[in-house]
Amino acid sequence: MIRNVIRRLLRSNSGAVAVEFALISPALILMLLGLVEWGRYMYAYNTLQFGCAQAARWGVFHITGTTTAIEDYAKDQMAGLTPTSVTAVIDAPSNTVTVSAEAQFDFITGLVAPTPALKIIARAKM
Description:
Blueprint: H1 2-11, H2 16-61, H3 67-77, E1 85-91, E2 96-105, E3 118-125
Helix pairs in contact: 2-3
């Protein structure tokens, strides 16, 4: 009698899916968090690069403006991102404007593994 019960339990597949999911789910969750962080990083980088490019374009058409006006325009174009520094350089003889910006990227999943903030650097020259 007990032997039959043990045989039935050993042949039973009920609960196997739950065990397999429990083994795979940590890897899936880590991969999902990694994708979210990568997406956030790419958004921050693209926003910083977009702000530099727009400010450089604006500066070329307003070459008589000051570097402060170009830097302020760049900061206005970086929606949702606070850059740590924005620098504009006007080269009047060649009519070019170079805008550089830096920002700090903080991970939201620092609870999983403590990670330092990354420095994002963007530069545009028109």
